[in-house]
Amino acid sequence: xxxxxxxxxxxxxxxxxxxxxxxxxxxxxxxxxxxxxxxxxxxxxxxxxxxxxxxxxxxxxxxxxxxxxxxxxxxxxxxxxxxxxxxxxxxxxxxxxxxxxxxxxxxxxxxxxxxxxxxxxxxxxxxxxxxxxxxxxxxxxxxxxxxxxxxxxxxxxxxxxxxxxxxxxxxxxxxxxxxxxxxxxxxxxxxxxxxxxxxxxxxxxxxxxxxxxxxxxxxxxxxxxxxxxxxxxxxxxxxxxxxxxxxxxxxx
Length: 252
Fold this sequence. Notes:
By secondary structure, this protein is α/β, with parallel strands linked by helices. Helix content is 37%, strand content 19%. It has helices at 2-46, 66-75, 93-101, 114-123, 157-161, 173-186; strands spanning 83-87, 106-111, 129-133, 145-151, 187-196, 211-216, 227-228, 234-235, 242-247. Strands 3-2-1-4-5-9-6 form a seven-stranded mixed sheet. It has a two-stranded antiparallel sheet with strand order 7-8.
């Protein structure tokens, strides 16, 4: 009898230990996740924003948006001496992808991070590709590009995962508007502006009046990022799906 009670107690202790281990692993994972988010939030709240930086992450993937690149290549198939800009080119994956869709184009990659540009130059020795360290397009020529790609750059991932009700101080609509306004200056009439995963809507800018929407993303082609209005307050409701815009030949 005593032996059975001892075995039962040992089994009970084993079950409790297993449950505690499972619970502790879940709690540990949750704690690590919460600490990561808290550290990220604190780091960006106590540190002055880096001029020209929207998206703090460097993560990217080769051929990340084949449906966008393919659409742009088809739309610009008759364009001779095509000139493209990858804004926020990170470590060069997007530029390499664009080269496959536009084999004869001249491509410029811009990124504010010197380390990223150094990596691009080391990886890509294409004579028709140039890389520039810059936080904006202010030094680029007017009416120079046939397409500007700005993909998952004019956004901040923490605004989504934190459930933020305002985008400031991390991001401000005025900065977004100034950025896309200068994109428009750099585009040829009839050129394409490709914006995907932004914290603000292009349609809310003054610049949008000079563009027509050519393509909207399908729901499965969109990220989970939320949008904010001109007042930097979160917009709740239907997602903004417009992603490719054409600059009108004449402005209204």
